[in-house]
């Protein structure tokens, strides 16, 4: 493909070459407004998420400029803003806590490489087979886990966070050390953040029935309210920082502060393939061993989150998941040369971007420029950012990720999915989000196995018409191992309608749902399998068919009607002289003659 | 149920109460012959398998009398002989090597308890969802792993066995220490065993065209040949033991011998809930922690093996898997009070039993009596059994478990199953049978996911007849998350027949297989979903339907025909005003009027 149509491939890899042609001033204005608005959310968030990942705040800022630049070139979804995200920061903490920043950067690099492999090979699309209830349960549990890990920041405590359960257990061990001033500040910050969010979402000046001047003023007021709401993170952090600065006296301070942030842009160098902690030196292999399952789990969740965001904003347009995965990979790899932590699309910032009227992925360029500006000139002032303010930013951002509405919907329209949702949710809370996600996928697989264990057979008893009385079944699609036992038990039940030796519950259920009239005992029984829409069977199913046919051959016949050649071959592989026919043969006295022919092949 | 019909429950639990009524002298003779024949196989095998499990030989004998007694009371399958089995002995070694015999006995007890729980709760039936290729790949790999672990016994070497790969690696480390006499004995034993097996299977005096006397003589010769073949293990071990005894001089011996076996019956006492190794004391909890995943894997494989044997000999009769699992559990629990290692049905002994003309599970009583006799009177002579002879018994027994024929069958009739088979086989060899089995189940799940990701939709374009031109689909059964993306991409392709932005390979494939004529552009498009045989959708699928309908609503309509109430409810949960109709409505000008009505509900 690369050799065949290089131009098309390059255009596919860099959508900017396409949308750039139609980039107007209007688009640019939309993008600038969105880019600046995003930056106001991103800058405080990035530092907070770095803290969540157990890294110094500057790593969050390092992650916030190269990734948006790269995404502007390669991304397909205007709304996506690449940068630190709550979920991936939590996972970074899970896999790297107790180590140093090099591990976090290296994880980002490796995740990027994995994304690229997944994107090129197409393996990445497998994440689309994770069902919505699993994703929802996982996201809600992750939000609660993140919020729980931030309680220490809110109250000025110090303990090791972990899973939801572990965080709260550790919390109750040190709760008596709660710092008053930090708690007061947190309450203030959270209240302000939630109020501003409510204002943005619910309070609007009514613009109907006003004259032109009133109308214009109302529109301006509405825009102002919206902007205040959107920039609430920046506002709250700024106010808290100024407050902390004002009450700061002789190195004594009532709040826990962020402390010194390395000023300036990061040094450009390859990601660390070697690092030292104390006197121990870790090679790249050692680091990979330490990261362990994170090398698979982190990229998988990154892809899952990004594809989900792109889909949410696609509005019915075709999603190019492969290109998105590649873009995510390149963002992470290039960013890791700038000492960045893991980057990913963020759902909350994408929503802000969308509401700000973003037009193209180019808005990332303006966001990135603002972050560079911040790193160059503002870092000295970040010393005074209270940790409680950053924790408040995280808590208020993630709590909206908890989706309890879906419970009501599932109860109404699809209750079995509640098993998956709640199973995923609680295993995430108890065992950690990464293990919980795997549990969720297993629950999905088990449910699928269950559904597949009840294949559609459409058993009927036909005793009218010109044909002798016979049973018919009409299997559809593919028949696989999961359904083999079910099919056999149902069809054997037709032969032995009364099961004397203590039938199990399952058989009773099968018999009652089958709703088949009792066949005449002692007469020859026919089973016509209509194979018109049967496409394949697997070996396990064929084995059960073999046993079934042996069973039926004692008192009856199994006849295969309209089987395709592939199905005929499969059946010939396990049966001696299977009886094939077409619908036309059935119309003649085929069934009766088969009886006298024994098991000879009657293929027409 | 226990309260409702106690008599029926007891009859179900103890099938002996049923078959005892019709137990004739003829049945008894069949059972005695089978019981004695089995004992001749079982006694040498049980000691060999105990060695395979890393236990002293007497534990194999301890496992060989209580279990057949119990199975005679509770079993449903005459052919099954309970006792040590190669597979479970290998697993016992995997989970308990480096400990003492108490761990092996405790594992048997816990496995029995797990069997009982699995049997009563019905969870045990889940093993029936393991496909034939997985079982086959697992069994073949286990046989090779066991045979590899016995090479040290054959050659008189000493190294730590483990997975197939590890055994051979360790073997090549000590191969230069091979003992000549042990090797010679092994070659002799193996040659004899394989020759006798071949005689039993292939050499027969032709009995046709003979007079009565000749005929009788021929029958007697045939029976004698068969008996020599069946008792080959006992013969070979006896001859080897006598040889070892004769060449034994002044404690010097050319062969490695079994050594002292504790004589007499085992002490009857509860299974060990505490044990000491060196100075360390292990509580029951410590022992369970050490056994780890074995507490699940061992009983699961036990159930799997037993159910497979019962099915193989059921000959079309209904299999009472639940009762078999319960019987297996009781056998293990009671046996563990007699210091027994894990017991299970053995495929090879069941085949012998079948060929010996067994009539009822009662034959186990005769086998058990012979084992008791052996323990009481023969153990002193077992000192001289050469280890090479026991290793030869194992190797020749397990090599016939390797099933290479299935590869040819799968190649002919179901190639995708080869992925599962070979995947399971090689992961068992490399990572150990217990991990490999789990890999196999995962491969099964992934294949099932793949099949489910291509649900049967039956997309058609109808432009003849009285109705306006429309697409119709006819989904069947249940629609689940795995197929959601496929359905959406196929149906979205109908709206946008030409995909300009670099379609992925998968889409191209989908388009080419769909075989749908190009629709007229710019006209309103109708999609009629025939729901007659649609039973349920899960939430993920409904979400994709929601997006799909929004997509279609721009240029067309989606109409739900003949939906059941449950389906209607599900659709109403995600769609605003879905359009329902019946076949009759379709016959009228329903489709056209819907267009003018917009998205209002037109339910009749």
TrEMBL record, chains A, B:
InterPro entries assigned to the protein according to its UniProt record, in alphabetical order: SLC26A/SulP_dom, SLC26A/SulP_fam
Q: Where does the sequence pass through the membrane? A: 28-49, 69-91, 103-123, 224-248, 291-313, 325-343, 363-383, 388-407, 419-451
GO annotation terms (biological process): transmembrane transport
- How does this protein sit in the membrane? Multi-pass membrane protein
Question: Which residue intervals define the domain SLC26A/SulP transporter in the entry?
Answer: 30-422
The alphabetical list of record keywords is: Membrane, Transmembrane, Transmembrane helix
Q: Where in the cell is it found?
A: Membrane
Q: What is its main location?
A: membrane
For this record, the Gene Ontology CC terms, alphabetical, are:
membrane
Can you name this protein? SLC26A/SulP transporter domain-containing protein
Q: Per the UniProt entry, what species is this protein from, by scientific name?
A: Chrysodeixis includens (Soybean looper)
